[in-house]
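Structure ticket #2291
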Amino acid sequence: MYNIPGHHHISMITKNASRNNHFYRHILGLRRVKVTVNQDDPSMYHLFYGDKTGSPGTELSFFEIPQVGKTYRGTNAITRIGLLVPSEDSLHYWKLRFEEYGVYHGEITTYANHSALKFEDPEGLRLILLVSNGEKVKHWETWGKSEVPAEHQIQGMGSVEMTVRRLEKLAKTLTDMFGYIEINRTEDEAVFQSIKGEVFGEIVVRYLDGPSEKPGRGSIHHLAIRVKNDGELAYWEDQVKQRGYQSSGIVDRFYFKSLYFRESNGILFEIATDGPGFTIDGDVEYLGEKLDLPPFLEERRAEIEAKLSPIEEI
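Resolution: structure written out below.
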């Protein structure tokens, strides 16, 4: 059996690419590593932010849907994203930065036994900074042109929170199928790690009854978890089938290959390969500066560009 090394990326919905671009580049200090389109609907942007090269485990991605409505929060959804920072001092730096830029945030607290600072982006997406204590994504690379000092930069994804009606069903999927380790359990919450002791593969599952979340701007579409290569992806495709889940089958996204399936609460998972990565069609120095299209969409570039509004610097 293969192990899951951690998170690959996580994908959200935004109403406005320009506002999204401003927040994640200029306030959070992430690098915009890829401007592309939703390959299933090329009329919408697909933006990726991360470290210097958009390494697996550092990528936040957003689909722009200008007509999208508000999110009605509820259960059976991915409900919070943890982002790793180096130290307790970093939390104090970020709290002051959020106050300077008018970012909605809480007080420094703890979350899943990590020192933490909750905040939201302009569309209400719930995020939380977590002190990594040296547990950053190991291949994370400093982005030298970030507006955030290197000693406080976000070092990739940490705990991802999922809220469900049937906690035990999701727990079995994580442990029995993927080999996650349950490290803590209370009456209405369980914490799982893909690698014991490593927060960059951590999933916090919370029990909540009631209506399902209605997605909109600021909601989370899916979590992608990492596999190393095509051979491992084929193995996981077989495991998904054996357990009776419907899947997309393996899809070539050009920057990685992946498959999608929903577990029994309706949480959408993607399983994605580490490579080839975002430098396959771009020089590291200029990543994210222009619209990149996978080869099968390149012949439609003029049509696609005509339907996209320019991303403005705010």
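Closing remark: The mean pLDDT is 96.
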